[in-house]
Write a structure and sequence with these properties.
Distance between the termini: 10 Å
Shape: elongated
Radius of gyration: 13 Å
């Protein structure tokens, strides 16, 4: 399991309320959040980017991680 898959699984275990709260604390704009599944996916993507991959280099990281296995 790659690093981003672990992060995605962790964020997927959060409730919608927890996701919204974390997004709010991180300053993610919630202007169009109607609680839909697509909105929750958008918020978890933004949270993952901010917390774990601010440079958006996860693609290169995954390639290196998979090469080591």
């Amino acid at each position: 399991m790659t690093r981003t898959e672990m992060i995605d699984n962790l964020l997927a275990s959060y409730t919608a309320r927890e996701v919204r709260s974390l997004a709010d604390r991180l300053g993610v704009d919630l202007y169009d959040d109607d609680g839909s599944h697509a909105d929750m996916l958008f918020l978890t993507d933004r949270i993952g980017d901010i917390l774990f991959d601010p440079a958006v280099s996860y693609i290169e990281f995954n390639k290196l991680a998979e090469m080591e296995q």
